Amino acid sequence: MSLSHDVAGDGPAVVLLHSGVCDRRMWDPQWTALAAAGYRVIRPDLRGFGLSPVADGPYSDAGDVAGLLRALGVERATLVASSYGGRVALELAASRPELVTALALLCPGVPGHVPGPELRSFAEREDALLAAGDLDGAVELNVETWLGPEGGDEARERVRTMQRRAFEVQLAAAEQFPQTRPEADLAGIAAPCLVVSGAHDVPDFREIAARLPERLRQARHVELAWAGHLPSLERPDEVTELLLDYLRVTAPPARANVSH
C-alpha cells in the first residue's frame, strides 16, 4: 500500500512523521519553511491516519515509510518525527540505517517502552470513553493531555480535527490487523540525533527523551521549558528555527537553494 503523502521542494530529503494524535497536517506550520530552505520535504499519513486507510493485513509503519522512500527514489533522508512518529523513526533507523542521514525527535516514543502510571491512566480513560461511544470526550481528553500551556486555540483546534479523523477512520475499520515490528537495536543507530522534550509533557516522554542519549551514539537532548507534548504546534516558529538550525549542520542544503 502507498501511504497518502505530500512532497515539496528540492534538495536533501526530510521526512516528517506525525504523532499518534495527529496526521501529516500537524506539520503545516513547518512545511513551507523547510521546503523554502532548500529541502525536499515528504510528509506521509501513516496507516489509519488522515487520508491513509487502515491496513488490510499485517503491516509495519517503518516498512511503509521505507517503501514510500523507495517509490520516491529517495536513497537517504533525515527523519523529523513527533511522539509515535519518533518510535517509527527509531525503528526505521535501527533496521535500515543506510536510509537515515540524521534524526530530529520531538517528544518521541521508543520501542519497548513500558507505560508508567500516568500514561496507563490516560489509556484507560480513553478506552472507557470510546467504549461508551463518547467520541467527543475522547477527543477532548487528548487535546487536554497532549497540548502544553502554550497550545492556543489554533493548536487545540488542529489537534481536535486530526484526532477525531483518526478515531473515525480506525473505529470504522471492520478489523484491526497487527503490526509487525522490525528489530530495533538502538545501539546500532549511528546517525546524529537531536532529541527534544517538553517540561510540561507526561513523565514517560520526558524520561524517554532524557535517556535516549545513553542509548544512541550521537544524540543530544534539549528540554523546552515552555513545551508540552506537541511543541511544533505550540510554538511553531520557534520549533521551525530549531529544526532548521539542526538541519543546516547535519544535512546542509545546496547553497543555491537556501532562501531562509
TrEMBL record:
Pfam families: Abhydrolase_6. InterPro entries: AB_hydrolase_1, AB_hydrolase_fold, AB_hydrolase_sf, Epox_hydrolase-like. It comes from the Bacteria. Residues 14-241 form the AB hydrolase-1 domain. One of its GO terms (cellular component) is membrane. The keyword Repressor does not apply. One of its GO terms (molecular function) is hydrolase activity. Gene3D superfamilies: alpha/beta hydrolase (3.40.50.1820). Signal peptide: none annotated. Keywords: Hydrolase. This is Alpha/beta fold hydrolase.
